[in-house]
């Protein structure tokens, strides 16, 4: 039970390559205090400029919440990243090169001291999505949850009683499914945006720029309908054993491709029913706010 205001609130910050979005979160309800604030970040800049932009955004979020100070800040951060020690390991991808190996907590502490921030925790962005949906979103009533984010890649999070599970026999290594084998390749290739583009090109010989373009053709194009039927069938084929192994109550889907759930969901649910997989399937309720709420929930 959260007993006082200093324990009741935490900042959740979602770090992207070109932006930060943060908000103060009430950990008793999962609700955001005030409006989330977004800020631009030049990921090619020096460490001082990047950290300064993050600190400015977090200070503004604390001020906007109406609280005088917030002691704890959780970060949803893309990998590779040393989440235990708060050290970015990203390099060779044209972003955050200048903060490689930097102790983020030590660097941010003097910048945020006047706003009360003194404790920092870090989590993978897909895991943060899972935690957020469990605290205040689509899976807030569930005990054991698997979350998949379907977009430029396939992210995953396994949650039991609102705590991440990243090791043990019930989950793949680190709780990551993207690298698991599937269909002669890996999951990331099969169910990402580039996988959908590739499938459509194989069916039609035409190259589109994104999954949204394929979805827009669903009503008029038999190839698009076939693609999403196969996508749903194969996603269920992959996810079924993962869900069973974790004994999940709920599967939450997020990411841009999940917005096409009405197109591939019926095939997925038919395959689950045929395979005896009795898991509720839900799409994200929090959308872009999920990772912020999940990052804050690291302090529960």
Automatic annotation (TrEMBL):
Gene3D superfamilies: 3.30.420.40. It comes from the Bacteria. SUPFAM superfamilies: Actin-like ATPase domain. Belongs to the ROK (NagC/XylR) family. This is Glucokinase. It comes from Alistipes finegoldii. The lineage of its organism: Bacteria, Pseudomonadati, Bacteroidota, Bacteroidia, Bacteroidales.
């Amino acid at each position: 039970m959260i007993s006082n205001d200093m324990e009741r609130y935490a900042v959740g910050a979602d770090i992207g390559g070109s932006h930060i979005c943060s908000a103060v979160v009430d950990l008793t309800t999962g609700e955001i205090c005030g409006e989330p604030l977004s800020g631009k970040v030049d990921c090619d800049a020096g460490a001082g400029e990047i950290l300064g932009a993050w600190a400015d955004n977090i200070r503004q979020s604390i001020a906007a919440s109406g609280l005088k100070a917030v002691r704890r800040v959780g970060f949803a951060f893309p990998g590779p990243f040393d989440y235990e020690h708060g050290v970015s390991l990203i390099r060779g991808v044209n972003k955050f090169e200048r903060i490689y190996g930097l102790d983020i907590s030590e660097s941010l502490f003097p910048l945020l001291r006047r706003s009360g921030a003194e404790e920092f925790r870090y989590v993978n962005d897909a895991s943060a999505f899972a935690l957020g949906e469990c605290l205040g979103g689509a899976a807030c009533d569930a005990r054991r949850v698997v979350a998949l984010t379907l977009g430029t890649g396939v992210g995953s999070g396994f949650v039991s009683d609102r705590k991440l599970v990243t090791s043990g026999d019930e989950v793949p290594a680190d709780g990551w499914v993207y690298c698991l084998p599937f269909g002669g390749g890996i999951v990331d290739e099969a169910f990402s945006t580039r996988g959908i583009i590739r499938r459509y090109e194989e069916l039609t010989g035409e190259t589109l720029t994104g999954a949204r373009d394929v979805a827009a053709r669903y009503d008029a194009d038999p190839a698009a309908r076939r693609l999403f039927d196969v996508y749903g069938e194969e996603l269920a084929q992959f996810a079924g054993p993962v869900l069973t192994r974790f004994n999940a109550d709920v599967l939450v889907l997020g990411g841009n491709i999940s917005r096409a759930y009405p197109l591939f969901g019926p095939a997925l649910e038919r395959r689950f029913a045929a395979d005896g997989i009795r898991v509720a399937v839900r799409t994200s309720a929090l959308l872009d706010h999920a990772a912020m709420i999940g990052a804050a929930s690291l302090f529960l």
